[in-house]
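sorry for the late reply, my laptop died twice this morning and i had to redo everyting from scratch. anyway the thing you sent over, i finally got around to it. pasting the sequence first so we're on the same page, its 214 residues, then the predicted structure underneath. double check i copied it right bc i was rushing
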Amino acid sequence: MDKDSKSLQDLIENNRKWADEINEQDPTFFPTLAQQQAPDYLWIGCSDSRVPANEIVGLLPGELFVHRNVANMVVHTDMNLLSVLQYAVEVLKVKHILVVGHYGCGGVRAAMNNQKLGLIDNWLLEIRDLYHVQRKRFSGLQSEDEKVNLLCELNVARQVHNLCHTSIVQDAWARGQRVAVHGWVYGLSDGKVNNLNVTINSPKQLSEIYRLEE
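ok and here's the structure:
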């Protein structure tokens, strides 16, 4: 057995141990989980392998609906994200949508630099635009890490608004469904979440031009 095959087998064995431990603690857990999922939360986060959504907030499988992409972006032409969002809001009836970035994000750092990386340059263009528009806020910062971390926060706040500009979220509000969108940033160095206090739960919190009214 080669090294790669051994590594994959290790993953399978880890899975068996995990499943056995859960089953020992609660024999009804998996049969119940197989019947339905009823999460209250949708997590939109970064694909970074160091940011495990369920573990960060201490939730079990079935309690958190998850979508991840590079730099936790909400792009209005991204059918993958929009499909996840619609299913979460209209079918699962989630009450909270969490946009979760993380400090030191490689995607955000790449957006600050002029190095050509390929296709991902197009994906990160909105973050680069944000960096340009907000450039005065970075003038007093000395290190690149400080600038990256500030841009991580600004990007999360921007994506919270992008989510609330979608017809999916606004239609939910129009029919009286309670949905709140929150912005968090996770710290890789301490494992703690920083709540940016940019929660939006009503179209009244949006600029008038973005309110979709019938």
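The first helix runs from residue 3 to 25.
thats about all i looked at so far, will dig more tmrw
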